[in-house]
Design a protein that fits this description.
The complex is a heterodimer.
Chain A (H helix, E strand, L loop, with lengths): L1 H23 L14 H11 L8 E9 L4 H14 L7 E9 L10 E4 L5 H10 L6 E4 L2 H5 L5 E4 L5 E4 L1 H7 L5 H6 L1 E2 L1
Chain B lengths: L1 H13 L14 H8 L3 E2 L7 E2 L7 E5 H6 L5 H8 L3 E6 L2 E5 L11 E5 L2 E2 L20 E8 L3 H4 L6 E7 L9 E7 L3 E12 L3 E11 L7 H4 L9 E14 L2 E19 L2 E20 L2 E16 L9 E4 L2 E21 L3 E15 L7 E18 L2 E17 L15 H9 L2 H7 L9 H5 L2 E14 L4 E12 L3 H5 L1 E11 L2 E10 L7 E14 L4 E16 L14 E4 L2 E17 L3 E16 L16 H4 L3 E11 L2 E10 L2 E4 L17 E4 L2 E13 L2 E8 L5 E2 L7 E2 L1 E9 L1
Parallel strand pairs in B: 6-9, 25-28
Antiparallel strand pairs in B: 1-2, 3-8, 4-5, 6-7, 8-9, 10-11, 10-39, 11-12, 12-13, 13-14, 14-15, 15-16, 16-18, 17-18, 18-19, 19-20, 20-21, 21-22, 22-23, 23-26, 24-25, 26-27, 27-29, 29-30, 30-31, 31-32, 32-35, 33-34, 35-36, 36-39, 37-38
The chains are: A alpha/beta, B mainly beta.
Chain lengths: ~190, ~725
């Protein structure tokens, strides 16, 4: 009996490694965007805002950046604005504002959620517009942070992942508290 | 050292530190847990990390799990939620260990409250009842398996339990409860927080219980005057303030007083009272050099053991009679800097000073202790978003010391020879010969201590690979250091030893229990491979690990090692007894939904001891069964399930242990039960035990709970001591 258990124990590392290799072929650890922005996504975005070094409290203006000519972006903006009316994070109470890309120069919120479906050119427009204006740009699309167009991309499923583009953050002038930075994936 | 530290820091700056200039912040565990959907900890590397990212085996028991626990204390909670070894000897006296090697006064598990050790160095153990924390104020209990002395220093040799309380600044907890139960159990507990804006927070807690010992059989082992009703009193004050945007300061003070019938060695117990006081100050600052944390604390532990044959001069005539008292204090000052270089590298450098001293052995004029200077560093490298490597290194320089009079020459200990025989022996010159030819002389002088230094290196390395979104593999190595407890170094206790004189008479002659400054620390190494899979479809997580541990130079902090040394009247002496190694595997499964809670842990372990002296059972046969390889159960299984239905909570906990062996108890203090290295073996049978909690939430601010502990039978044999009785308690609690 004891010998059998010992044999089993010796085999366990091999089984674990083999299993992991097999599983590593079936996925990546970086996450992908989901079809629709969920309440959890918005909740996590607001939570992330609460870890800004200049911690906002109370009423917080949150802009939702969209392109009225892009149906996917319009629909996402509606979903996000609807969710923002019901969600708050700690002491932060969001007040949403829809901002068309054509009017991004008027952006005056400390946080801006980038809707889905925008083109790379439009994302460029956003990242240029928020330079040095201390605006935290947030997205549910990992590529937005990876390409430096957004400061933060948040993936909520299956496991929460926060991708932080330090260069984008530096460009717009936002900073997070150090403990938060230790816990997120800095690109 | 400070100068070197500053130079080192400046060196890092020269290569481009990306340091935060944001507001200072102690770790806000609650908010971060909400953000990431899992607990956050700093107990693995000193860096804030998500539980799933730590490079070592770790279990975190959350506040919600504690709230649903049936257990009344922390060892009970560990028993319900982990596969740690928990030996409950009497009410309030439990010893906890990681991966076996458990014993009375277990020395290898370092227990902390918010980073302040509550482990008691002088005897190398944790008095769990004396921890000044109420269950309602615990945010999480972090259990690190394997050596972690590279972060926490000596004694985190086999694992760490860090109890993290709610923050006085970020959290609000106002709760009070009253509990009554079987065996005369009466408990009150209260926790309150108050905030002055968002700049100052205060948390105050207090609690305690009175109860009776579990079993009247205790008096069969300890004569009636030596038993006492256990009790606990504890209070804690924690203040945290935001001094400026970049600086936080904290102050914490605690007091506890407990009484127990404590199993000091496997074969005998003594009632004791332990008073513990602590004060701690902290400062956290965000600077251009990174996150700098400073911590200074002092613990003072006063223990009073009832010892009828202690040396005159150290006996304190307290209310209950003769007692042997010790006073131990530890002062620790630590400075740490945590910073990032670029996006991928996090570093921690730290320096620590520590002074530990014990007195009253053999008189209050004697102080024995050690001073430790430490330097440590940690480098965490995010090689890719999916691969992370952590390396931690610590160097400790320890200087042993002893001050006060050396002890030598005969010690006048009263013999118990019947008066007529004593008169006859005195007339014949035999009685004085008995004393003078057996002088008790300590074999060491102060110089033996003051010339003793220990230099040791601790290491922790870990590689974490997130193979997929849901699969994580972990490979780790650790080298940890366990210091022998101060009593093993410096205890000096003349006692009487019974010697048969023939004809039915016996005499008490002087003998010695003495420490040994030549002891070397125990080196613990750990090799481990772990695998975790998130099963989000069923709201669960499964993990497994295989481990191989070695223990080199185990010392007589392990009570099995106490032995008679003939020739110099030493009855018991601290010694390095040899090596041991173990291997095994662990499986864990945990999950919950809004209504349901479930989980299971299983551990399989085999230990092989290689000690340098022989051990014999009661039949005179050489055996190793009474060492750790026999004293650790091969299998431990815990299972739990819970369900919340409207205002009701139902939780059930089960635990199985395979059988194991311990030395038999012996009521005779003078004989110790192991004279000549012979134990009586006691086999603790395998057992299954169940705890349960049924709670009704009357409103959202009031509840009633029924807790049943070991309810499957009237008594359960957990150790070689009298069995633990079934317990039931009724709790009424309110939030205010």
């Amino acid at each position: 009996m004891i010998n059998n258990i010992r044999c089993l124990l010796k085999a366990v590392p091999r089984l674990v490694v083999a299993g992991l290799l097999a599983m590593s072929l079936t996925g990546t650890a970086t996450g992908t965007a989901r079809a629709e922005t969920t309440a959890k996504d918005v909740q996590l975005m607001l939570k992330a805002v609460s870890f800004l070094s200049s911690k906002p409290t109370g009423s917080l203006s949150v802009s939702v950046l969209f392109n009225p000519a892009n149906p996917e972006s319009v629909k996402d903006a509606e979903v996000i604005r609807s969710l923002l009316t019901t969600i708050k994070a700690g002491t932060i109470v969001p007040v949403s504002k829809a901002v068309e890309l054509s009017q991004i120069a008027t952006l005056d919120s400390p946080a801006a959620i980038v809707t889905r479906g925008l083109s790379m050119g439009e994302l460029d427009e956003i990242s240029t517009a928020v330079k040095a204006r201390k605006v935290l740009t947030l997205s549910t699309d990992p590529d937005c942070a990876k390409t430096g167009k957004c400061v933060i991309s948040i993936v909520s499923e299956p496991k929460v992942q926060v991708l932080y583009n330090g260069a984008a953050g530096q460009s717009t002038g936002v900073e997070f508290v150090p403990t938060f930075r230790m816990l997120i994936t800095e690109l | 050292m400070l100068k070197n530290y500053l130079l080192a820091t400046a060196g890092f700056l020269a290569v481009g530190v990306v340091a935060a200039t944001a507001r200072a912040e102690n770790v806000d565990y609650g908010s971060l847990e909400q953000m990431f959907g899992e607990p956050v900890t700093t107990s693995a590397t000193g860096k804030p990390q998500r539980a799933s990212d730590v490079p070592m085996a770790m279990t975190i028991i959350t506040a919600d799990q504690i709230r649903h626990a049936a257990a009344l204390d922390i060892p009970g909670i560990l028993k319900e939620y982990t596969d740690l070894d928990v030996l409950q000897f009497t009410r309030g006296d439990s010893d906890v260990s990681v991966r076996g090697y458990d014993s009375t006064m277990e020395p290898r598990l370092l227990v902390l409250v918010n980073g302040r050790q509550v482990y008691v160095d002088y005897f190398g153990f944790t008095n769990w009842d004396a921890i000044p924390v109420e269950l309602a104020e615990i945010h999480q209990i972090e259990v690190v398996k394997g050596p972690n002395t590279a972060l926490f220093g000596f004694n985190a040799a086999a694992g760490v339990v860090n109890i993290v309380t709610v923050s006085p600044l970020y959290d609000t907890v106002n709760e009070a409860s009253v509990r009554i139960g079987t065996q005369g159990y009466k408990e009150v507990s209260a926790v309150g927080t108050a905030h002055v804006g968002d700049k100052l927070g205060v948390r105050l807690s207090a609690g305690g219980y009175n109860a009776q010992p579990f079993n009247d059989n205790l008096t069969n082992l300890l004569t009636a005057p030596l038993t006492q009703d256990p009790f606990r009193r504890a209070a804690n004050l924690d203040v945290l303030g935001q001094l400026t945007e970049d600086i936080q300061v904290g102050l914490e003070a605690s007091h506890s007083l407990v009484a127990q019938n404590q199993w000091m060695l496997p074969f005998f117990a003594r009632p004791d009272q332990l008073r513990s006081d602590s004060i701690k100050a902290t400062v956290s600052a965000n600077t251009g050099l990174g996150m700098i944390d400073g911590q200074v604390y002092k613990n003072v532990v006063f223990t009073s053991y009832s010892m009828v044959d202690a040396l005159p001069g150290v006996i304190e005539d307290l209310a209950t009679g003769d007692k042997l008292s010790t006073r131990e204090s530890v002062t620790s000052a630590k400075l740490q800097d945590l910073f990032k270089i670029g996006a991928d590298h996090t570093l921690r450098i730290a320096g620590e000073y520590r002074y530990n001293t014990m007195n009253s052995v053999p008189s209050e004029d004697v102080h024995a202790g050690y001073t430790v200077y430490s330097g440590s560093g940690m480098w965490d490298w995010a090689i890719t978003p999916s691969v992370n490597m952590t390396n931690a290194l610590r160097f400790d320089h320890l200087q042993l010391e002893r001050r006060g009079p050396n002890v030598n020459g005969p010690v006048p200990i009263t013999n118990n020879i019947p008066i007529p025989l004593l008169n006859a022996m005195t007339n014949a010159g035999l009685a004085s010969a008995l004393m003078t030819t057996n002088p008790v002389t300590w074999p060491y002088t102060n110089a033996d201590f003051n010339n003793k230094t220990i230099d040791e290196v601790s290491v922790n390395s870990g590689l974490v690979v997130k193979a997929t979104d849901t699969d994580t593999i972990r490979l780790s190595y650790g080298r940890g250091i366990q210091m022998p407890p101060l009593v093993d170094y410096a205890w000096f206790e003349p006692i009487t030893r019974t010697v048969p004189l023939g004809g039915g008479f016996s005499a008490s002659v002087p003998a010695l229990v003495n420490g040994n400054p030549t002891l070397e620390p125990t080196i613990v190494t750990n090799y481990e491979l772990g695998y975790t899979r998130d099963l989000s479809d069923i709201s669960s997580k499964a993990s497994s690990s295989v481990f191989y541990d070695t223990y080199q130079n185990l010392s007589s902090a392990d009570p099995f090692a106490y032995r008679a040394v003939t020739g110099n009247q030493t009855l018991l002496q601290g010694v390095n007894i040899g090596d041991s190694h173990s291997y095994g595997m662990e499986l864990a499964f945990d999950g919950h939904t809004d209504s349901w809670r479930w989980g299971a842990n299983y551990r399989l372990e085999f230990i092989h001891d290689n000690f340098n002296f022989a051990q014999y059972d009661q039949n005179g046969n050489m055996t190793l069964d009474l060492f750790y390889q026999g004293a650790t159960p091969h299998s431990l299984l815990t299972m739990r399930g819970g369900y919340s239905y409207h205002a009701w909570d139902f939780d059930l906990f089960g635990r199985y242990s395979s059988s194991f062996s311990l030395p038999n108890t012996n009521p005779q203090f003078g004989s110790y039960g192991l004279m000549g290295g012979t134990y009586n073996k006691y086999t603790v049978p395998s057992y299954v035990t169940f705890d349960a909690r049924i709670a009704y939430n009357v409103t959202d601010w009031a509840w009633v709970a029924l807790n049943l502990i070991n309810f499957q039978s009237s008594t359960t044999q957990f150790t070689n001591t009298p069995p633990v009785e079934r317990q039931g308690t009724l709790t009424v609690g309110i939030k205010f």
